[in-house]
Amino acid sequence: MNYKSLIILISFMLLMPFRAGAQEIITKGESLNLERCVEIALKMHPNIIAASSTVNATESRIGQAESNYYPQVNWSSSYSRNKPASSSSGSSSGTSSGALGRTNGSFDQYSAGFNVSQTIYDFGKTPTQVKIQKYNFDSSRSDLQTTTDQVINNVKQKYYGVLQAKRNRDVSTESVKQFEQHLEQAKGFFTVGTKPKFDVTKAEVDLGNARLNLIRAENTLRIGTANLNNAMGVPDAPEYMLEDNLLFRKYDMTFEDALSKASQNRPDLQSIVAKKQAAEQAIELARKGYYPALTGNAGYNWTGDKFPLEHGWNVGATFSFPLFSGYLTKYQVEEAKANLNVLTANEESVKQTLFLDVQQAYLNLRDAEERVPVAELMVKQAEENFELASGRYTAGVGNPIEVTDAEVSLITAKTSYIQALYDYKVAQASLEKAMGTDVQSRQ
User: Fold this and answer.
1) Residues in contact with 260: Cβ distance below 8 Å, sequence separation at least 6, in sequence order
2) pTM value?
3) What is the pLDDT of residues 393-433, one digit of tens each?
4) Which domain holds residue 282?
5) Does residue 321 form part of some domain?
6) CATH of the domain at 54
7) Segment 176-190, tens digit of pLDDT
8) How far is CA 350 from CA 55, 263, 266, in A?
């Protein structure tokens, strides 16, 4: 998903209440596919809401930095009641004219006025601050995309996890039915005296184990569904159904192409690059502490102790030059350089992590790709073996141990096949996340 479409979607989502109820997002009994689950996560997951709000905050900082381009206008007004201290050496009557007559009396004081100041030239400090905030904004947008990729990848893994658990549950259900059928056969043979009591007891034990496995499979499915709900940001979601797309479709991609796409698209790499650019500008901003600033100002005010108030105005300019600040600017420049070195090292770390992510996901994908056809063949062979063992027992020439071993082998083969399909889908999703590509464009 590109940044533009992501911002449009999240902006629409932010117009809604912060958290709609799960019943309003998912209808009970609704059939969800992977795209629908991802859509719900983009609307509801708190990590995406937090990351998008961070983008809005950093965008506001650009406006804050640009505010220094405009004049600053302030209005102030005050009132005070004053009573000067009496003079101990003054006249005892304290009633002489003029100011002496007011010495022991109280009076009001009023003042009001406005002041306008405008930075005329600050040797590029304001433009540099604006550049820094724009780079930080770019970094936060990339961080939003990183968070989005993580949320979507988690949804995909949990989605496939539920499908895996559901298929394993179905295998366990089928196994219970087969062992129930085998128990009925054993009882029938024992009744007519062709098989010993051991066959019946063995079938009962096998059926009990199969039922225990079914209970565990049901619980695993419930846990998987809870994990998917949490990944979508709707832990209290009503019951729904999932479309099963746990199928093998070969994903054609060379390692070199995957690595190239990751280098171009990974949002965490783009984020660290933007932070480096901001750090480079921060060095320039710190160096500008050595330069002067020219500011213009003007004001108009009213003041007096009675109305109408006297009024006046002022206009002028201030030129300030930092002669000595206790080496403050020097240390600020050194700090900015050190921060840039940190980000440079972090960029190299991200590149190494990027390479490892792509390599691991690619190797896991190829491993699962090789295992899927082998596991599929094993299922066919195990089914044939089970049919032979069951047929031999039905014909009265087999024994229950053969049937049990064949059934266990069949269960193992089916479970391995389901695991291989799950591993392939998860590896594909991990590779797409590692490349920073649109994870919804390939199913």
Assistant:
1) none
2) 0.84
3) 988 888 899 999 999 999 999 999 999 999 999 999 999 99
4) 3-15+35-69+134-288+343-435
5) no
6) 1.20.1600.10
7) 999 999 999 999 999
8) 21, 10, 10
